[in-house]
Structures are given as structure tokens and as C-alpha cells.
Write a structure and sequence with these properties.
The structure holds two protein chains of two kinds.
Chain A lengths: L11 H5 L9 E12 L6 E9 L2 E2 L4 E5 L6 H8 L7 E6 L2 E2 L6 H10 L2 E2 L14 H11 L5 H14 L5 H5 L8 H13 L5 E5 L7 H18 L2 E6 L2 H7 L2 E6 L2 E7 H6 L4 H9 L39 H5 L5 E4 L2 E3 L15
Parallel strand pairs in A: 4-9, 4-10, 7-8, 8-9
Antiparallel strand pairs in A: 1-2, 1-3, 1-5, 5-6, 10-11, 11-13, 12-13
Chain B lengths: L15 E5 L6 H8 L15 E2 L2 E2 L5 H7 L4 E4 L3 H4 L6 H11 L5 H14 L16 H12 L6 E5 L7 H18 L2 E6 L2 H4 L5 E6 L2 E7 H6 L4 H7 L50 E3 L2 E3 L13
Parallel strand pairs in B: 1-6, 1-7, 4-5, 5-6
Antiparallel strand pairs in B: 2-3, 7-8, 8-10, 9-10
Helix pairs in contact in B: 4-5, 5-6, 6-7
Classes of the chains: A alpha/beta, B alpha/beta.
């Protein structure tokens, strides 16, 4: 509603966003994606992402945190233009994405905003040397480079992600690399495109604990040395805290809470964020005996009625929560929560 | 290939033991060996698994079948694969019970409903098929099935790894509650050390097919002795406290087909000494903990 899905005049973008260079790198406005499910006589609509407005700045790691089914991967796919939004708009460097048409322009956008996938064992073709995907990306996205330059560039990005000696690693086959090294190949491939924003969908969840940190450090290093922004999608809030500048918590297709990482974690305003934090196992902390155990699960949002989507699990729900969908309110500087009960000052403590 | 090399431990009735390690460290092979589930070409080449005074290695399939579910159950990692997708939960519970001579329909229905209630699922779901349950409920249903005969030992292979933190936490609490209530022993295999930190009595840290360290869980967490355990502990970003840069453990786990001559952790160890690369260390006792590291063999680094 409100925003028609077919606003593609292409002129509105730059006008609405004066000084595109100074603005955020990427911004979404009421981003919504529904999926049709069910048969002919039981048409239903699954609301995977509803009314999401997020901002990613330059040189920034933003973590998108949520449980499975929260819509976080759908957001990534919308940003990568693998899905088209049902309604709403994505602005990249001030320009609306719906205006990006034609193979060349799309290729250009995908070079600016590449994706790194979750499973490093499935995302690299096993029959080619690892140089192959990187070289192909370079050939496709940067045709101006000569063969010699392509090779140098491949070595540069391999060195940048810590695959050393690059000339030697480039000649290996995927099976000769460990999971952590393969995931680095994924980042090298993205980096070869000279991206502005890397969409990393659970890039470390398949890796062993002892090598996860290495990848997280790599992401921070890429931000600092290469100046890229990263959207880090994860269910692991502790790793988000480790690497991210800002945090966006999603629940059932909505943004529940967003703000600077430390700010959100030390003063979580939304009861769902509090629940998430209370569930993280922390070997350093003593077990809080008698801790509330929430046995609910995130709902599948099919043909929803208005109201907060967390209300069935929320111990603080009031009447309003059952009738009015809460929208994001800025409670503290840059820190917003979509909750009727949350207040800036008083601690609303649903789960500890 | 030697996937699990001379791992020894004993488990008392009602004890909760956590086995942690990275992929390829042999933890799943160990668990399959204990449950006698290894399929050729994997086999137990030496050693024994004594369960309630009886060596299970070499038992015939028929003898093992009598033990499974009744005395010992296994909860697998992926409930979606472990449950039969074309049968209702009820039918699968009935299968297990009939295999052990319970044929009374009333008795089966009653017990099935009872175990489902124990894990917090409404018995109406007995008629559901696995795909109709959420991931968390499927895992609970698997655990309910393991409880059918109130076994003495439940072996769990990463039962929570497919779940979200919230579901994971509530399942762990539930498992612990059931254990306190029914008194079975648990062998819990996981790659996530922090998960068992509050639940297991003892912890076995495996690396490259051998035990690196084993001791009381709290003890291992508070003062890990093996450099690998230290590294693992430091590989977890914390949700509380100061935000400190972490390093993880550089390198990758050893290829078990090409085991290095000395300590298996030596190539990644920050405290490696010259003798570490020559002779493999034994398990040395230190205040009730066992640790496979020359730093703790009594001579320490002086010999290095």
C-alpha cells in the first residue's frame, strides 16, 4: 500500500536524495516482499518482508540479525536483485533500483553489490581451479583489463583476503582448500569486482568455531583497508557484536530494533532483542537458574492482521499490541524500536 | 584411516558428558562406535564399549536391536532425516514400541502421548507428519521417541545445531530437566563448546581423533590446560563484557589420513616446542583433569 510497486520513472530518485554522494550508500523505503502460497482455492500470501526501511552507510558493517524465518535472507536477496520487491524501493547511491534496467546496468549494479554465500562447499565449482571464478568475474565485470592485469588483480584480491602465497593458491582446486579458505575465495571473488557493498549471508555459520573469528576479522579488515560496506546477515548475535558497527534485529518480516551495536546490546529496548540476548550461551557467565524459558517460535506470517507480530510470545503485551502494528520509533539517539511498550528511560525487561 | 584413536572414558549412571571438537575431529565416529552404528568400511579395530557390564563390540545385530531404544537411544542431528517423512509421529512411535514387544494399542497410545507431553508438545501432534512440525518440534519429537522406554543412556549428536538460539536454549533446558526427572545418562556431541558449558558434568575436548583434554566442565572452562582448549575458548566472541580482538586458531584440523608424527595440534599450536613435533604426548593427569600436552607432563617447557 502507499508506495506503488511500479514507480519506475527513474527521475524521482536523484531529486528525492539531494547530494547523493553525501547520502547513505544504500537505503530502502518500505521494502516489502510477499510470496503467494497455497492452491487455487486457498490463495494465501506469505509476508516474508514487510515495510522494512534500512540504511547502510559508507565503510560500515551492518549486522542483520534474526531467527530463521525472520526474513533476513529475503532482504539480502531483494538487495541483490534476485527478487523484486512487492512494493517499496531500494535506493543505491541515491538512485532507485527499479530504474536500473538492461543487462549492462544490472551487471554494473551486481558488481557494486556482490553476494557471499553461506555454504563454501556448494558455492565454488569443484571442477575448476579457484582462479577460474575470480578470472571470470574480472572478465565479465572489468573487460578493460588485459589478461596480464587480470592475473595481477586476482593475486591482489587473494592476498587481500589472506590467501597467501596468492600465485600458488590460485592454482589449487577447491577440494585442496579448507572451509575457511574457500569462504575467503568467496570474499576474494566479491572483492575483484571493486564492490561498494558486500552482502554476506551467514558467511561463517558453516565454518568451525576456531576459524570463524579469522573470517570476521577479515570482514573488519576489508572495511578498513578496502573501504567496502558489508551487510552481515547472521543468527549469531555474539559474532554480530564482534564485527558490526550497527545492528538491525528482525522478527517475522519486520525490523524490531535497530541502532549502534553496543547501544542495542547494552540497552535492548524491544522485548524480542532481550529474549535473543538472554538465549545466547555464554560460558563465561554463570547460569541463571530459573531463567525464563520461552518455548514459542517465530510465526509464519500468512495473511496477517494488524498488531505486533511478537505479541504471542511477549510477556509485556498490552491491548494495543493486538490491534495496532507498532512502527519504529527513535527512543534514544539513532536507536529505534518497534514496540508500544518500550520507553527510552525506563527499562522494559521482559527477558533477562 | 584412524578416525578415533584410543579414546577412553567412563560414564556413570545419570551423568551428562559433553564431547566437543571441530568437524573431522572424530567426535561423530566416536559416537557411532559407541552406539554400534558404524557401517563398513568403518569398523572398530580395537577397544571395547562396555555398557551396563556388557561389551557391545561384537554383539550381533539382533542382540543390539534388543538394546536399542530400550536401554540406549540415539538422537540424531537432523530430525528431518531421522524421522520418516511419510509416516505420522504416532506410527513411528508405534514401530519402535512394537519392535520391543509392546503390542497393546492402548498402551502404545498412552505412552506416546505421555512422552510427547514430557517434551512440551501437545499430543494432538501424534497424528502429524514430520513436515507439519517446526524444526524445534521435530527435535523434541525425536527426543520424545528416545524416551519411550526410559533408557539408561541417550546419545545425542548435535541435536540443536539446526535450531535458532532461542529454540536451542529452550531445548537444552528441557533436556536437562528430563534428565533430572528420569535420571538417564547423556553423551552430548557438539562443535559448540559454549552450548554445553552450563549443562554437562564433564567435558571431553577432542582434536584430530584423540582426546586433547577431559575434566569437569566448569574446570575446563575456567582454566583450560591444553592450548587447543585455550584457543577454542578464545574463539568465541562474548555477548557481554569488553569487546576484545580475538584471533581464533590459525590453520586447519589435521588430515587424519596423514597424521603428523608428534602432537597432532603442533602445527597450529602457539606454544609448540621442539619435542612436540617428534613424539606424540600422552594424557597426563593434572588435578583430576587429563590433558594431552607436554606442557603438563611434569617436565613442562624445561625439556623443550
Amino acid at each position: 500500500m502507499g508506495e506503488p510497486a511500479t514507480r519506475r520513472d527513474g527521475q524521482a530518485g536523484p531529486a528525492a536524495e539531494p547530494g547523493a554522494g553525501a547520502g547513505p550508500l544504500l537505503r530502502t523505503e518500505s521494502l516489502t516482499r510477499h510470496f503467494k502460497i497455497g492452491g487455487l482455492f486457498s490463495r494465501q500470501s506469505l509476508h516474508a518482508v514487510d515495510d522494512v526501511g534500512l540504511v547502510i552507510g559508507e565503510r560500515e558493517i551492518v549486522a542483520l540479525v534474526g531467527e530463521s524465518g525472520s526474513g533476513k535472507s529475503t532482504v539480502a536477496r531483494l538487495l541483490a536483485r534476485l527478487y523484486r520487491p512487492t512494493s517499496g524501493e531500494i535506493y543505491f547511491q541515491g538512485r532507485p533500483l527499479s530504474a536500473v534496467r538492461g543487462r549492462q546496468n544490472l551487471l554494473h549494479y551486481r558488481g557494486d553489490v556482490p553476494m557471499v554465500f553461506q555454504d563454501p562447499f556448494a558455492s565454488i565449482n569443484p571442477v575448476f581451479r579457484v582462479s577460474h571464478p575470480v578470472m571470470r568475474c574480472l572478465k565479465l565485470h572489468r573487460p578493460e583489463l588485459s589478461a596480464e592485469q587480470r592475473h595481477q588483480e586476482a593475486e591482489r584480491v587473494f592476498a587481500a583476503v589472506g590467501l597467501t602465497p596468492p600465485a600458488e593458491v590460485l592454482q589449487r582446486f577447491p577440494h585442496e582448500l579448507s572451509g575457511g579458505q574457500r569462504q575467503r575465495v568467496g570474499f576474494a571473488q566479491a572483492l575483484a569486482l571493486r564492490p561498494k557493498l558486500i552482502l554476506a549471508d551467514e558467511p561463517v555459520s558453516m565454518l568451525d568455531v576456531s576459524i570463524r573469528i579469522g573470517l570476521l576479522n577479515l570482514m573488519a579488515d576489508l572495511r578498513d583497508s578496502q573501504g567496502v560496506s558489508i551487510l552481515y546477515i547472521t543468527h549469531d548475535i555474539a559474532s554480530a557484536r564482534y564485527v558490526a558497527d550497527r545492528l538491525i534485529v528482525m522478527y517475522a518480516g519486520h525490523i524490531a530494533e535497530t541502532g549502534p551495536t553496543e547501544e542495542v546490546l547494552t540497552r535492548p529496548r524491544h522485548p524480542y532483542t532481550q529474549l535473543l540476548l538472554s538465549a545466547v550461551p555464554d560460558p563465561r557467565a554463570p547460569l541463571k537458574v530459573g531463567a525464563e524459558t520461552d518455548r514459542g517460535e517465530p510465526p509464519k506470517v500468512i495473511d496477517p492482521v494488524p498488531g505486533c507480530r511478537f505479541r504471542w510470545r511477549c510477556p509485556l503485551a498490552i491491548d494495543e499490541c493486538h490491534t495496532v502494528t507498532p512502527s519504529l520509533r527513535e527512543l534514544l539517539p539513532r536507536h529505534s524500536a518497534a514496540c508500544h511498550v518500550a520507553r527510552a528511560d525506563a527499562a522494559t525487561e521482559a527477558f533477562r | 584411516m584412524l578416525a578415533v584413536d584410543k579414546v577412553s572414558f567412563d560414564l556413570s549412571a545419570g551423568e551428562f558428558i559433553g564431547v566437543v571438537g571441530e568437524s573431522g575431529c572424530g567426535k561423530s565416529t566416536l559416537l557411532f562406535a559407541i552406539a554400534q552404528l558404524l557401517v563398513p568400511p568403518a569398523e572398530i579395530t580395537s577397544g571395547s564399549v562396555v555398557f551396563k557390564g556388557r561389551n557391545m563390540v561384537g554383539l550381533t545385530d539382533k542382540e543390539m536391536t534388543a538394546i536399542r531404544w530400550r536401554d540406549l537411544s540415539v538422537v540424531m542431528q537432523s530430525a528431518m532425516n531421522a524421522l520418516n517423512p511419510v509416516k505420522s509421529i504416532q506410527a513411528q512411535f508405534a514401530d519402535a514400541m512394537q519392535a520391543h514387544g509392546v503390542h497393546s494399542k492402548a498402551e502404545i497410545a498412552e505412552r506416546s502421548a505421555e512422552v510427547l507431553r514430557m517434551v512440551g508438545i501437545d499430543p494432538v501432534h501424534l497424528k502429524s507428519h514430520p513436515h507439519q512440525l517446526s524444526g524445534g518440534m521435530r527435535q523434541r519429537a525425536m527426543i520424545a521417541m528416545a524416551m519411550l522406554f526410559t533408557p539408561d543412556l541417550v546419545i545425542m549428536d548435535e541435536p540443536t545445531s539446526a535450531l535458532d538460539v532461542v529454540a536451542q536454549r529452550s531445548l537444552m533446558v528441557q533436556i536437562k530437566e528430563l534428565q533430572e526427572q528420569l535420571g538417564f545418562a547423556i553423551i552430548f556431541v557438539t562443535h559448540d563448546m559454549s552450548l554445553v558449558s552450563h549443562f554437562s558434568d564433564r567435558l571431553i575436548v577432542m582434536y584430530g581423533g584423540v582426546v586433547a583434554e577431559s575434566g569437569a566442565t566448569r574446570r575446563v572452562f575456567d582454566s583450560p590446560l591444553h592450548p587447543y582448549s585455550v584457543g577454542l575458548m578464545e574463539a568465541f566472541p562474548s555477548i557481554r563484557g569488553p569487546r576484545i580482538p580475538l584471533t581464533g586458531i590459525p590453520g586447519s584440523p589435521p588430515d587424519l589420513a596423514r597424521i603428523p608424527p608428534g602432537c597432532r595440534f603442533a602445527p597450529r599450536c602457539p606454544k609448540v616446542m621442539s619435542r612436540c613435533t617428534e613424539t606424540p604426548p600422552e594424557l597426563y593427569p593434572v588435578d583430576g583433569t587429563l590433558v594431552r600436552c607436554f606442557l603438563h607432563d611434569g617436565e613442562g617447557a624445561s625439556h623443550g
